[in-house]
Amino acid sequence: MTDFQSPLIELRGVVKNYVTKAGSFPALQGIDLDIYRGEFLGVIGKSGAGKSTLLNMITGVDQISAGQVRAHTNGTSVNLDQLSENELTLWRGRNLGVIYQSFQLLPMLTLAQNVMMPMDLSGFYHPRKSKERALELLNMVELGEHIDKYPSEISGGQQQRVAIARALANDPPLLVADEPTGSLDSVTADHIFKLFQRLLDDNRTIIMVTHDQGLLPRFSRYIQIADGQLVGEGIEL
Amino acid sequence: MRPRWRKVLSDLIDNKARTILVVFSIAVGIFAIGVIAGAYVIISEDMGLSYAANNPSNIEIRMDDFDQDLLNTIRNFEGIKEAEARRVFNLKVRIPGETQWITVDVVSMKNFDENKINLLQPVTGGAAPEKNQILLERDVLEELNISPGENLEIQLRDETIKEIIVAGIVMDSSTGAIDFLAPPLAYITSDTLKFFAEPDQFNRIFATVETGQDDDEHIRSVIADLTDKIEKNDYGIGRTFRSKTHEHPLEPTINAVLGILMVLGVLIVFLSSSLIANTLSALLNQHLRHIGVMKLIGGQNQIIFRMYLVQLLVFGFLALLIAIPAGGQGAYWLAQYIADEMGFSLLGYRIVPLSFALQLAVGILVPLVSGFIPVINGSKVTVQKALDGDRVRRSSGEDSEGKEEGSRFEEIQVKTTRALADRGIRIPRQMLISLRNTFRQRGRLMLTLFTLTMGGAIFVSVFNVRDTLHTYVDNIGNYFMADVTLDFERPYRLEEIKQYAYQDPRVTHVEGWSYASAEILFPDGSTAENISILAPPGGSDLVSPMMIEGRWIQAGDVKKLTVAEGIYDYYPNLEVGDTIPLKINGKEEYWEVVGLFKFIGLEGVIGYAPYEYISREQNLANRSFSYRIEIQEHDLASQEVMAKDLDAYFRAQGFRVQEATPGLSTLDSAAESLDILITFLLIMALLTATVGSMGLAGTMSMNVLERTREIGIMRAIGATDLEIIRMVIVEGLLIGLLSFGLGIILAVPFTYLLSNIVSDAVFATPIAVVFTPAGYLIWLGLVIILSSLASVLPARNAARLTIREVLAYE
Ligand SMILES: Nc1ncnc2c1ncn2[C@@H]1O[C@H](COP(=O)(O)OP(=O)(O)O)[C@@H](O)[C@H]1O
Ligand SMILES: [Mg+2]
User: Fold this and answer.
1) Ligand 1 atom closest to the CA of A49, numbered from 1
2) Touching check for B401 and chain A: CB below 8 Å?
3) Domains of chain B: which residue ranges?
């Protein structure tokens, strides 16, 4: 389903240097990359290769040192580095769902409330509507019976599914996942991938970071990075 | 509920201890402000009104005996609206069958129903006595337990003891309001005077002025004209007093005292703010990850900011919920207490809008202002920084500096430890860990130290001020060193009295003193103020003055005097060697001021001149009405016994004794009323100490919470509960002791400041500051106890953590 005509995100000469006491450390050294609508892009590399840094550039969570990240979502095109903090937050809320290895659910809220939170913060949905939508999403990730539980009361795999439901709350075209299965066993991870597949069928784009070479066959396309540089790429097998 | 408010609510509920700590510390400040502001308003409204309600005299003149004719003259005098004449004399009374006599001032009136000035308020029983009955002012009840209808035993001058029935208890908020050291009052009608063997004549005038009842200058000028008139009629005048109609004579003093308390209240608010700032920056630190998540999923800065702002407002609201009712009640209670002490009544419980508004403002502003910076910083934090706290902190510029200092600190510590070890002194490893932990969160440590140090400094200062005031009162006592003062109704030869007095082996020294009542005049001849000139013999040892300038009196002085610094009110540029105009013994004369001394600045001016000169001028050479007697034992009990014995002895020998008073009785009650003030200061000091130790408790639990993982690791490698508890408590104690060290330094300027403000309010003069170890010792003990207590709970929580919980902690 990938639409190779119009990229969703374009990275051009992206450089990220971390300034540390020891001096400037180049975590990304000029990355050029297009991310297309509908693809399941895997970003593969060893620990410390710069995968998370690359994701942070795409989500706008950290500042780019040189180069450009352009996004063409919801009919508009923006240069991420030209947005203010608040505009970025708003853009992210509308266009991106982010999923982390460590789930990052708010422990004091129930599952339903966790999923409602993005809708509440962005204000895209009326509060009553957002409740309905949260239930739908939790049903979709097969957690419809646990909506009033707290994150600490469910398993890791279930928490990650809640995180996915939350990432989908504002109906974003793009999902960004940093090692989403990293702390899950293979059966549970399988479950997550099945979920991803359904989202892809639903015309969403997913970028997923992993250090696990074994996951390669799961992606529609993959890139490989080492020491902050693109060292290879491939298309679905 | 929207998820964001759900989160705010959960944050408030989940950490109850923190919510309570913050709410309580805001509440303490609001409470203190509310109590003081409320009491201030209630008192300034009610004190004046309740005082004015009884039509207080503007003018009181104590003078020779006079009759209705003179009263009529005075009533018709220009500028006088109403005038009443009374006879006032003192008397000993007791409950029949008991041994303890107390002195009361008996006021006789012609007609209680027609009385227009210094009205009495009935409390219980009748409001007007019948013939041969007596009314008591309610102050008497503090010393005698008696009710209307019961009998009171009285002792007349000639030692006869009689019984008289108590008609009722009244409140008199006017007579004696100026002079809160005066004995309590009792009232009879003029036709009861015979029963007391007193002449049916008046000796006091109470009058109101026609216009300008609240104009001190005007009242003064009416008094000057009136006393001229009375003296032209050949009557001698003792003293005059003036007071405004709508201002209780003690109101300025009480307002000054409340002002001091208010300053402390504001300080408490200030301290609690720093405690809140501390707690909130810890809270936001802990919430860093939550903030990061919310930003990641679309929460803009202002939304996050608003969420925490609401949390702050909820803190304030909860604090108001506690503090407003408590503060209102406390204000009324404080006002009631002061009203009871000062003898006026309140108009009733009410909510004071001013103090309500102040409390509301404090309750809203304090959390907002003190939480603003932490909340702004927290809501501005970037997602990256929030989600990846550790790594960012390690690499970002600002904190690396702190890290370096930290390692420098460790370096110093290692060096000192080694140096100490070389000398055979070993600091236990546990102690070293506590020491290092103490300095880990420097910003937090600073704020905690600040709060606790201020609390301690105020605490210690209050004790110093207490001793300062007491020392001053003792020094004032050096003007009244006689053990017994023996006053006669007529003058006796010095030799004669001495001869009799020395019969008693306890008597070691006898002096006859003179006394002259005079007026200080302005250069234009108008009256400035009354002056009481005491005249001890030239070389008397019974006065040990606090000289400011010049010298003390000498036997050979002629028309020379030393005068209390109160004179500066009228002659601000007076210097030793200057002459001032006096009206003395009916003549206007110029006297040279040879010295100035310190004295309580209330109630007119006092001066000293030698007996040798004054007695000659009064044609009383070698004779005196009044004798000062020194005995072997100087305690109050011996003085009381001696006073009684001398009284009885001289009467038995046929002398006409007026009164024998033991030495320090009046000063004791002066010290007592100071103690009321000190009590309030101490309450405020305790409140500040409370806020300080709440700050410490908060800091300790934040420290422990943030080190949960570390404590877990320590446990995993075998640290026992006891070792962990000890580690935390030692850290708390270190902070406590550090604040003690800083506090005792800060207490020095605080003591000066506080004692200057207080002495200015109470004595109208700055006084020499005295430092006492008591405050330091008590605070040391308190700080040790408080800081151990403040750490015990967090320490126990730390020890209770299981390794599983620790690893689950995120
Ligand atoms: N905030 C930071 N400051 C300094 N160095 C960083 C920071 N974040 C990441 N790095 C470094 O950049 C490199 C890439 O990190 P990252 O993108 O997290 O790798 P990974 O591929 O494991 O996700 C690593 O060497 C890491 O140490
Ligand atoms: Mg990574």
Assistant:
1) 21
2) no
3) 1-54+249-398, 56-244, 441-478+665-810, 481-662
* A107 vs A176: CA distance, rounded Å: 22
Mean pLDDT for B106-112 is: 91
A66 has a chain B CB within 8 A of its CB: no
pLDDT of residue B179: 65
Q: How many CA atoms lie within 13 A of B529 on its CB side?
A: 19
pTM score, whole prediction: 0.76
Residue B57 CA to residue B612 CA, distance in Å, equals 38
Q: What's the CATH code of the domain at A153?
A: 3.40.50.300
Provide the 3-class DSSP secondary structure of residue B225.
helix
Confidence of residue B181 (pLDDT cuts 50, 70, 90): low
User: What amino acid occupies position B37?
Assistant: A
Q: Is B619 helix (H, G, I), strand (E, B) or coil?
A: coil
Contact between residue B742 and residue B776 where contact means Cβ atoms under 8 Å apart: no
Taking a C-beta distance cutoff of 8 angstroms, is the pair B479, B705 a contact? no
Buried residues in A209-218 as b, exposed as e (16+ CB within 10 A): bbeeeebeeb
Q: Between B546 and B189, name the one with better pLDDT.
A: B189
Across the range B532-544, mean pLDDT stands at 88
Query: So what's the ipTM on this one?
Result: 0.90
The strands making up A221-226's β-sheet, listed across from edge to edge, are A96-100, A174-178, A205-210, A40-44, A221-226, A229-235
Q: What is the mean pLDDT of residues A45-58?
A: 93
> What's the CA angle centered on B501, arms B557 and B493, to 5 degrees?
50
Residues of B within 8 A of A167 (CB-CB) are 297
Q: In chain A, how many domains are there? A: 1
Stretch B797-804: mean pLDDT: 67
Residue B671, pLDDT above cutoff 90 = no
Supply the pLDDT for residue B669: 57
Structure tokens at B729: 């408590």
| Chain A interface, best mutation among B1, B296, B390, by max A CB count within 10 A | B296
**Residue A204 belongs to domain spanning:** 3-235
